Structure formats: C-alpha cells, structure tokens
Amino acid sequence: MLPILLLSAAGFTVLTTEFVIVGLLPAVARDLDVTVSQAGLLVTLFAFTVAAFGPFLTAYFSRFERKRLFISILVLFGFSNLLAALAPNIAVMALARLFPALGLPVFWALASETAVDIVGPQFAGRAIARIGFGIVCATVFGIPIGTLISDAFGWRSAFLVLAG
C-alpha cells in the first residue's frame, strides 16, 4: 500500500499548490503591487486553465509511460512553486500558476488509473478513496498551514515549502 500512500501524498501537494494562494492573496497583492482583486485572478486563471485544457491534455498524455509522466508532473509542480516564490511581478506569478494548472488534471487521471492498476478492480474504490484522502488533508491542513507559513515567514516561503 506504500504506492497508494505516495499517490495520496503527491495529491496533497498538488491540491495544496492549487489552493494555497487563496490564503496568501493579500500578501501577494501587496508585494507584487496589484490589488487583491487582481491577485485573485490567479485563482481564476488556475481554474479556467484546468477546465479548458484538462480534458485535452489528459487524453493526449494518456499514451505516455506513467512513471515518467508522474515524475514530469511532480517536477513541473516543484518548478512552478519555485517560480512562484521568486516571482518579481504578477506576470511571472501568472506563469507560475499556469504551468501546474496544465498538469493537475493529468495528475488526477493518472493517479486514479495507477491506483486501480496497483490494487486491481476489486479494491479500486478503496484505493481511489485513499488518494482522495490527500485532497481532504490538503484542504483541512495544507492550505491553513500554507497561510501560517506565509504569516510567519512571508508568502514566498509557502511556495518554497511546496517546491521542496
């Protein structure tokens, strides 16, 4: 069950990357010299990108070898979080949010498919639920912890932790 636990942990990081920005918006806006509303568009950009490109990218990448694809997606998330931490302006921050949004739907499809392959169809629901536990933990713990890190050490630190 270690592979399922690792998929859940990766899911925690992926979902925290998506939503941690919500608790950081005032600090991001202040530091990047934009309004909170303008910084809020970073959330919209992420969601719109997932919705607009997710089905196509998931279908396209379904033919790639899974292990390499997983590694590539996780590296993409790490790089994007590092870029967010170093973003000198809102345009670079937008790019830092765009890249993981392209990888997120591919990750979830891949994680679900991989979980079923690991445990077999008999335990598929249980395995997918365990991966979903990473989502719950990200919502309950990841996002608030990201906000606490931001409050204590600055918003860039939250992204550095996610990049790590």
TrEMBL record:
One annotated GO molecular function is: transmembrane transporter activity
Primary place of residence?
A: membrane
One Gene Ontology term, aspect cellular component: plasma membrane
- Where in the numbering of this chain does the Major facilitator superfamily (MFS) profile domain appear? 3-164
Pfam families given in the database record: MFS_1
The entry's keywords: Cell membrane, Membrane, Transmembrane, Transmembrane helix
Q: Where are the transmembrane segments?
A: 35-57, 69-92, 131-150
As for subcellular location, the record says: Cell membrane
The protein's topology relative to the membrane is: Multi-pass membrane protein
Which PROSITE patterns does this chain map to? Answer: MFS (PS50850)
Q: What PANTHER family is this protein classified in?
A: PURINE EFFLUX PUMP PBUE
**Protein name, per record:** Major facilitator family transporter
